[in-house]
Design a protein that fits this description.
This protein has 233 residues and is an all-beta fold. The protein has one helix and twelve strands; from the N terminus they run βββββββββαβββ.
Length: 233
């Protein structure tokens, strides 16, 4: 796993990363996240303080594994966010079967302490993290500037490329649960990862990839803290 730990107070930042996937064994339900961005916020919009009973980690997960399908569908609205924000800021609700981009989302899941989550909804796995989680997993277009709303080309093993990702803008458009009546929370992204998830499989699965260049670039300089640590674990 490759991480950058930082404290970005804004949505205006890009990530430039060069990825070369050498081997990909993920099993039938595996994932590869070109970026996995995290922020910790309570449901009342307050910043987390270490109280695992009410802290919630929110994940923006950008999928490029070509075998991953969209679980968000017109007949599976519980796996879709309540709405999608278009490029121009228009809200498109998930029951708008003509305009909602179902193919853009792998899944959305709500934290299991979301008392007022809009029904239908699916709870995130209760046991994958110490605290509750709230995840939105979506597909990227080839240019990395938007979500995919059409079948994805097989950008995969042996296709090394540099990605310039409009990561802040994309992640700022995602829906994350907040209690009704609370002001919109400032998303202070604290971790940006390139990582994989290998789920239960009947075989031994091995994944190998290399990164060259991994740069987080603010496009508007209003950052309270700029401290990065590189973790090659």
């Amino acid at each position: 796993m490759h991480n950058r730990y930082l404290n970005l107070q804004i949505s205006k930042f890009k990530v430039i990363v060069t990825l070369n996937v050498i081997r990909g064994g993920w099993g039938p339900q595996g994932q590869f996240y070109l970026l996995d961005i995290g922020v910790c916020l309570k449901n009342n919009r307050e910043q987390c303080n270490g109280d695992l009973s009410i802290d919630v980690t929110r994940f923006s997960e950008m999928i490029i594994y070509p075998n991953t399908s969209a679980w968000c569908r017109p007949n599976s609205l519980d796996l879709c966010p309540p709405y999608h924000l278009s490029n121009d800021g228009q809200k498109i609700y998930r029951n708008d079967m003509k305009n909602f981009p179902y193919d853009a989302y792998h899944l959305y899941c709500a934290p299991y302490n979301a008392e007022f989550a809009e029904k239908p909804f699916r709870e995130c796995d209760r046991y994958s993290n110490p605290q509750r989680r709230n995840s939105s997993s979506f597909f990227l277009t080839l240019n990395g500037q938007s979500m995919a709303i059409r079948p994805r080309k097989n950008v995969w093993i042996g296709d090394s490329r540099m990605w310039e990702l409009d990561a802040g803008r994309l992640s700022s458009r995602l829906f994350f649960y907040q209690d009704p009546g609370t002001p919109a929370a400032a998303r202070k992204w604290s971790a940006i990862d390139v990582d994989t998830e290998i789920f239960i499989s009947s075989y031994t699965e091995t994944t190998e990839w290399t990164l060259s260049d991994f740069n987080v670039i603010p496009t508007w300089f209003s950052i309270r803290t700029w401290e990065t640590k590189f973790d090659n674990s």
